[in-house]
Specification:
elongated; Rossmann fold; 57% helix; alpha+beta; six-stranded mixed β-sheet
């Protein structure tokens, strides 16, 4: 139950406290006095949209604070504790701040929380209804939601199964459509990949082959120069057999080594140098031998050179198209082979998806029919209950009914032997019909209901909901719009009955409704046009009679209006 709200710098309200109580509370006041700000404040506490235009001119921020008593062990208590909120003896403090720049902050039990947490709690704590909700009831989608809410698990179960199958069907349909519409592009891509793979397969490149052939081509292209240089180097190191007078490096090193060997025993340092010269002699011998072998093995075959260059040209053709070197070409070939396998498998995938789509359509057909049957059964009970409530709201001869049908769609799903359109909530189109008096045809309430009738239908619907899915608090903002006379009295009486099982707060301009309230709050502006702390007062005794008189005749001191006001209060007390 909502116990109290403090509102600061919101619209015309400067600083005001709204103290609420169990039962039926009526909020009244002159037009423009700020009654609607009470509804707006509660909306902010319940996670509603923060509009910086609501911040009072000259203020930095608007602040709304509320104190809500929660039932021990309720889901609202558990959700608040999950959010880190602390409760004070079962009472939850809620705060919402909206800055003039549009920034919004929410606090729950002393802990800063996302605004969405307040909205989650709102579904379990308060039902808010205003004139915009009446207009919302005109939309078929809202009417279907109302019917589903009334039906409860009977619709919720099949609807959850249907929604899951529907989401899967949409995903399958999207993937299937993409595969089918891109068939030409995929075929072109596959042809290009096959061409490239065939071209690579014809060459059969080996990893690193391009590097090896480049080195071989360089060697074969300079074979004569390499052989001549190797021969000269060999002669310089090992001597030329054809020139006995020539001096070679091996002979000179050997002479140096002999010169030191004879005296090396006299100085260890010289002995070390002799060792190193010996090592040089061995190294020269090895190099001279390898040079002789290199020159002998060097192949200057022009045919081999031509073959190498031809192979290199084939490899270059591949690297020009598919990679910077043969390693990259081979990597492209592997990736392309995988992609081609994927593309070639699309036909199988299309076949699989088509079969799955057809199966899901069949499943949706069954689930959609279950939904239709559940909604049709619930619609009869819902309409009967709302019709009974309308009899208590000065519409004794009105009849409410629901039309549950489907629109045909050749591309839809078969339900009950007809191919109908299907959507995320089923194939049903739900419309609330009203026959206001005997003999009148049942027409959609969007076309056949007056403002007053629509107000009473909405109230009747909410009263029916209160019996099946109750919430602790109901807030109605001018639910009696367009109503007067006896109908207004019946609305007040019905709200008082609803207040026996829940807290009911009503912003009203009708004295017939306010008279039935257990408590009446008056919202008044001060001379400067603002509502201050003292501007929201509890009316009792003579003050309440005066306010009801003003609401009746616009004259607080009219004896006739006072008599009528006292009569209304007496009637309300008698009903209570």
């Amino acid at each position: 139950m909502l116990e109290e709200m403090r509102i600061r710098s919101l619209g015309v309200i400067d600083d005001a406290v709204v103290e609420l109580s169990p039962g039926f509370t009526a909020v009244t006041g002159e037009t423009g006095a700020g009654k609607t700000m009470v509804v707006t404040s509660l909306g902010l506490l319940l996670g509603g949209r923060a509009d910086p235009a609501l911040v009072r001119i000259g203020a930095k921020a608007a602040v709304v604070e509320g104190r809500i008593a929660l039932r021990p062990g309720s889901s609202a208590v558990l959700r608040a504790e999950e959010a880190g909120a602390e409760l004070d003896e079962g009472t939850l403090l809620v705060s919402r701040t909206v800055s003039a720049e549009g920034r919004s902050r929410a606090f729950l039990g002393g802990r800063s929380v996302p605004v969405g947490v307040l909205a989650e709690l709102a579904d379990e704590l308060v039902a808010v209804h205003g004139q915009t909700d009446q207009q919302g009831l005109l939309r078929p989608a809202r009417q279907r939601e109302a019917l589903d809410r009334y039906a409860g698990d009977a619709v919720a179960g099949p609807l959850a199964k249907y929604a899951g199958a529907y989401r899967r069907l949409r995903a399958v349909a999207v993937e299937l459509e993409e595969l089918v519409t891109r068939a030409r592009e995929r075929a072109q891509e596959a042809d290009l990949l096959r061409f490239g793979l065939d071209e690579i397969a014809a060459v059969e490149p080996l990893p690193g082959e391009d590097v090896e052939l480049a080195a071989e081509a360089e060697r074969l292209g300079h074979a004569e120069a390499l052989a001549s240089a190797a021969a000269l180097a060999h002669s310089a190191l090992a001597g030329n057999p054809e020139d006995p007078e020539s001096v070679d490096g091996a002979t000179l090193v050997a002479g140096a080594h002999r010169a030191l060997e004879s005296v090396r025993s006299h100085d260890p340092a010289l002995a070390a140098l002799a060792e190193r010269i010996g090592e040089v002699a061995i190294l020269l011998g090895d190099v001279a031998g390898e040079l002789a072998g290199y020159a002998a093995d060097l192949d200057a075959d022009p045919l081999r050179l031509a073959a190498v260059e031809e192979r290199r040209a084939a490899l270059t053709a591949l690297t020009r198209k598919y990679g910077e070197d043969i390693t990259a070409v081979l990597a492209w070939a592997q990736e392309s082979a995988d992609r081609l396998t994927e593309l070639d498998g699309d036909d199988d995938r299309i076949e699989q998806l088509t079969a799955e789509r057809d199966g899901l359509r069949g499943e949706l057909s069954v689930l959609a029919q279950e939904l239709t049957d559940a909604r049709t059964e619930a619609a009869a009970r819902f309409a009967e209950a709302v019709t009974a409530e309308l009899a208590s709201l000065a519409m004794p001869h009105a009849r409410v009914s629901f039309a549950v049908g489907q629109s045909e769609d050749p591309e839809g799903v078969e339900v009950g032997g007809r191919t109908v359109a299907y959507g995320p909530t089923g194939a049903d189109e739900v419309e609330l019909l009203l026959a206001p008096h005997p003999g009148a045809p049942a027409r959609p309430i969007a076309k056949g209901a007056s403002g007053g009738e629509l107000s009473r239908v909405m109230l009747a619907v909410e009263v029916v909901f209160a019996g099946t899915d109750p919430v602790p608090t109901y807030l109605f903002d001018e639910v009696d719009a367009g109503v007067g006379g006896k109908a207004a009295v019946e609305i007040g009486r019905r709200l008082a009955k609803l207040a026996k099982s829940a807290q009911v707060v009503v912003v009203t301009h009708l004295p017939q409704v306010a008279a039935f309230a257990d408590r009446q709050l008056l919202v008044e502006k001060t001379n400067d046009g603002s509502v201050t702390r003292s501007g929201v007062t509890v009316l009792e005794g003579e003050d309440r009679v005066r306010e009801l008189s003003r609401m009746l005749a616009g004259q607080e001191d009219s004896e006739t209006a006072r008599a009528h006001a006292e009569e209304l209060l007496a009637t309300a007390r008698a009903d209570g």
